[in-house]
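Running this now, will post back.
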Amino acid sequence: MSDNLPELSRSIPEEAIMCDSHSLPPEILLDIIIRLPIKSIITCTSVCKTWKSLIQNPSFISDHLRHSTTKYLLFSLYSKTAWQVYRIPHEQGREHYALHWDDNQDFNEYTKFYFPLLHGQERFRVVGTCNGLICLANYICCDTVIIWNPCIRKFVQVSKPLPLPNIPPFRYSVSVGFGIDSKTSDYKVARILSFRDRKSASPPKLEVEVYSLATAEWKTLTTALPPTGTECYGNPHASVNGALHWVASRRTKDNMLIKFVMVLDLGDEVFSEIAMPKFAENERNLPSTISAYGNSLALYQEVSMNYLNIWLMKEYGNASSWTKVVILADQGPRYYRPSAKGFRKSGEVILKMNDTKFISRDLETQEIKDLGNAGYYHTYVDYYVESLVLNDKKSQLCSY
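Update: finished.
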């Protein structure tokens, strides 16, 4: 039984737990409900108003999340047909999401669902996932953001951030991240805008906005920003240990380009940096992407059509702990550069080998497993855990 359940049962009036005189003791009833499949828990909200009140209690939601130890792998997929006609607003063009069992040898599909909204010609991508929430944003501007819990069929359409300046001389890039403030358990979205004046050689300027789900407001950060000239390489990002991480760069006074990991702590809302691995001379300018690796970080470098580099940070925050692993591409009728998408619970790296083929590869034994999902394009992969998060939210919440 959860340590918090007795306290929760005492905090709720007896009539808010017992729907009849033959009910079980409150702490036993709570312990039973919290262990049910999430669909059954949602069904329990229809039993009576008191049970609904219980299940929407923030303490119950937190306890349920602690009990949700089964992790799935979330795939966001477009079929070949949908990818070709994504601008047509009909069912076929909606993005398909699938959860797969990660601790199962056959990697079976657990369930699937669809994004509930169709915004005409607007197309969305996954920004990130956290505790059962999926954050989505539209392409280019990332000014339409949705925080969605598909398990309970609820979402929040985030209020619009500050509009971008409509000034022709400027060009900009937008990077977005999503994670949790580990101090307050508040879910936050960060939007980083990099502006460059086309008519001057001045370094780019950054603006950083952070949205809080708890306050339902955006705010612009004005202190502890990255140094002038910092450029964020967009997406993807890694959400680890209550902080967001992006690959970034800036030029030194002698015009040398240095790359680093830019870190935004979601609690203090301040930036810091982690040094990149000690790359070989021929690796320094290779494109790099980042992802979570357990409670630490991984970097991917696409070296050529034949292989890629994978760097693992064995100790989070310690740049000297970066360790290099080389993954060779499989040979076939055509050469494809493998694209790393993330990791399984076992530590196997998930690779997209061509347009539609996915495998997992053991970094020590090099054993390969075919993950299926053939016939799909534009895939995002991340851990996912079922939760009741958003079930206690009253304002701005949409159900479907």
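Residues 81-91 have pLDDT under 50 and may be disordered. More later if anyone needs it.
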